[in-house]
Design goal:
The chain is α/β, with parallel strands linked by helices and 244 residues long. It has 10 helices and 5 strands. The structure holds iron/sulfur cluster (SF4) (3 copies). The site of one iron/sulfur cluster has 13 residues, from helix 8. One iron/sulfur cluster (SF4) binds next to helix 7.
């Protein structure tokens, strides 16, 4: 029998599931290896036991906690799919911004009846066995993880920072242009995508293991900045440890 796989979404834009669908040919090849029994973007399934549950989105209400716990009970391996699920992602802003301020920046106007919710990553509520970081995820990284899970392995995420991939790509450092970058403390694996595209790293893949805080502090100081000056930038995708 093929391994049973389900995709679930909570508070999110569903962009990570779309990344999976956009794999097109590779997604179809994937369907030969597994049986996808639930995928709300394309189908609704029955509540059968699962080998792997890919869960997208942050948890932002007691009802979502309950639903997540039921998914956890049904699956052998639970994977946090994307930044919203892994670190709270852009939903981390719910801890620091007024809901109407967020509504105005998203929709250009206030939204009636919007409530303050505090979104958290999956790991605050259930055991997470594996993660695909990023906003959105990298389709190749998703495929690599799935292939590993199918042979009973959980691959390690890169334990080094985006700076390593940035330097390997010989990109000019944004700090030299006076632009703050979170690359020194952010987990690699995106091949420094944003810097290669002329932007800076905003930390969507979450903190690297054991971030080297002191050298980063020094870089900031050299450019007349403190950690407090860049906290707002950090909070776009990440919750501080005392909230996650
Ligand atoms: S991580 Fe980004 S792309 Fe994925 S669901 Fe969250 S907001 Fe959307
Ligand atoms: S700080 Fe940013 S731009 Fe500079 S090397 Fe690191 S990742 Fe690249
Ligand atoms: S460069 Fe930073 S913000 Fe951009 S994809 Fe990589 S981790 Fe995310």
């Amino acid at each position: 029998m093929k391994p049973r796989v389900g995709f679930f979404d909570f508070t999110s834009c569903e962009g990570c599931q779309l990344t999976v669908l956009n794999l097109e040919e590779e997604f179809l090849e994937l369907l030969e290896l597994v049986e996808v029994v639930e995928f709300r973007e394309v189908m609704a399934g029955d509540a059968v036991p699962l080998d792997i549950a890919f869960v997208e989105g942050s948890i932002a209400s007691p009802a979502e906690v309950q639903r997540l716990e039921r998914i956890r009970e049904r699956c052998r391996t639970l994977v946090a799919l994307g930044a919203c699920a892994d670190t709270a992602g852009v939903n981390a802003l719910s801890h620091f911004c007024d809901p109407q301020e967020l509504a105005r920046s998203a929709f250009g106007r206030p939204v009636e009846g919007i409530e303050k919710t505090l979104a958290r990553p999956l790991s605050c509520f259930v055991t997470v066995d594996a993660r695909v970081p990023g906003c959105p995820i990298d389709g190749r990284e998703f495929l690599g993880l799935l292939q590993s899970l199918l042979v009973g392995r959980v691959p390690e995420l890169p334990g080094y920072s985006v700076c390593v991939e940035c330097k390997l790509g010989e990109h000019p450092c944004t700090f030299e242009k006076g632009t703050v970058c979170l690359g020194p403390v952010t987990r690699a694996g995106c091949r420094a995508l944003c810097i290669a595209g002329g932007d800076r790293c905003r930390g969507c893949r979450g903190l690297v293991d054991n971030p080297r805080a002191q050298p980063y502090r020094q870089i900031l100081e050299e450019h007349g900045l403190t950690v407090n000056d860049i906290l707002a930038e950090f909070r776009i995708f990440n919750l501080p440890p005392d909230r996650s």
